[in-house]
Amino acid sequence: xxxxxxxxxxxxxxxxxxxxxxxxxxxxxxxxxxxxxxxxxxxxxxxxxxxxxxxxxxxxxxxxxxxxxxxxxxxxxxxxxxxxxxx
Length: 87
Prior knowledge:
The chain has helices at about 5-25, 30-50, 55-80. By secondary structure, it is mainly alpha-helical. It has one domain (about 5-80). Helix 1 runs antiparallel to helix 2 (about 30-50). The protein is elongated. The N and C termini lie far apart (about 60 Å). InterPro entries: YqfX-like (IPR055338). This is DUF4190 domain-containing protein.
């Protein structure tokens, strides 16, 4: 593998780490069902790909789990897949 290809791989996994963090963070507010698993997948791919941003990927992984946990709690409370904050 050339140095250019290796640099491209690191850049790709760094982007995955960043987007896992962003999707996990946004997923706490909207679209938990979509953005939570997306954050989990991107963080896992970034970590297994050898990203230089391991902390950001780990945060994305934690936020993805938090997204799904929040969704499960709100769904259990409302007994519906769509949740809202109004009473």
